[in-house]
Amino acid sequence: MYFQTKLLSFLSLFSAFTVRSRSGPLVAPLGSSVVLLCYVNELLVMEDLEVEWRRTDSGTLVHLYQDGESQAEKQQQEYHDRAHFFTDQIQHGNFSLRLDNLRAEDEGRYTCRVYSQQDSGETVVQIKHERLLVSGSDRSVSAYDGEDITLSCSVDSHITPEHINVSWIRTDGDILVLLYQNNKTLPDSSDERYRDRVELFTAEIPKGNFSLRLKSVRTEDKGVYMCLVSAGGLSANATVVLEQLGFSSWHVAVLCFCFAAGSGAVLLLCSLIYCRSKNTDTSSIIWTLQVSLVFCPNICMFFAFMLWGFTEGSLHETVTCCALYFLRPVMLIWALRYLKYLQDNHKSWIRFFRITRELAVLTVIVYSVLFAYGWRISAHDTDNKNSISSGICFGIVVLSSLFLSEGKSFYMI
């Protein structure tokens, strides 16, 4: 045995050794333990063998093996009790270092230097702590109503997609737009206003692309959207701003009707005031202006709200306002001082649509929309009590309205 050791020592004098380590950076999560590989394939003489690990950038001593043992007292303070040799493996050419409780400041390059009687060598190991880098769009996104847009979100990480959770959230109101969890998209988790309008690009997810496609953009979609990414104990986010949307042809039509209603009402009112200020007999003209002032602006606003409903999908507001503008002319015509110019059939028609009946019709229309909305929500509820209660309430409203419509009329003449 003694002779073999001497022979190996003699042969090693004529052959240099190569210090090896892993290729590529070592990636690990914060708080974990990592092993920095450093080894030689040749047997080295243990006498006067020295191994040191240092930070490549600063030269800080991480750990030292000298005089046949670890020199823990010579370590830099931040590595004390965290950096350890595999002492029993050193005689076999394994000089790897275990670093416990990985910190963010541990990221960097480390040099393993091996000194022996016959030669010396070194290798470099790079540590990268696991991180999530999430990036969105540097510029705000804008679109016309009804268009499909993409809100960018890319994740640069060594973590595989199946371990990543992504939540798209609208920050004003903390509204959940879409959730990606357990390696699949959960469309049912989306808020009702975004359901069936949002999706991820499935083929791009393995590349770290979690961009959101928002279909049929509406004006109320304007806001700040956050792409929140989490994996284990790591989390990061990026935001995308959806700017003021441009006007579509529907919006232009709504504006035209509103402008026609406003300007037409002012023009008719001025003409009516002018004609009434005259002492001449212009009752027929006044009658025409009065009827036009009652009907024309309301008809314009009726169509404006109808188009607004088609554009924005706000059913409750649309139906209520359309019903109001549709019934208002009949309400206002009661206040006319010129009922004597109406024909008998017109008078009968106006008296038939008295205040109580108009309010009954308006009440039924408004509450029917609210009932439909509540019924649609309760349809997802396994408890049928809410559906039954809402149906009973709606029935009571309808019966009350019918009873009211047959009540005593109050003429405003």
UniProtKB/TrEMBL annotation:
Major localization class: membrane
Keyword Ubl conjugation carried by entry: no
Keywords: Cell membrane, Disulfide bond, Glycoprotein, Immunoglobulin domain, Membrane, Receptor, Signal, Transmembrane, Transmembrane helix
A single cellular component GO annotation: external side of plasma membrane
Domain Ig-like, residue spans: 31-128, 130-241
InterPro entries: Ig-like_dom, Ig_sub, Ig_sub2, Ig_V-set, T-cell_Activation_Regulation
Domain of life: Eukaryota
Membrane topology listed for this record: Single-pass type I membrane protein
UniProt keyword Glycoprotein present: yes
Transmembrane segments: 250-274, 286-309, 315-339, 359-375, 387-405
Residues annotated as signal peptide: 1-23
Biological process according to GO: cell surface receptor signaling pathway; cellular response to lipopolysaccharide; immune response; negative regulation of T cell proliferation; positive regulation of T cell proliferation; T cell costimulation
Compartment annotation: Cell membrane
Protein name per UniProt: Butyrophilin-like protein 2
Gene name linked to the record: LOC109082448
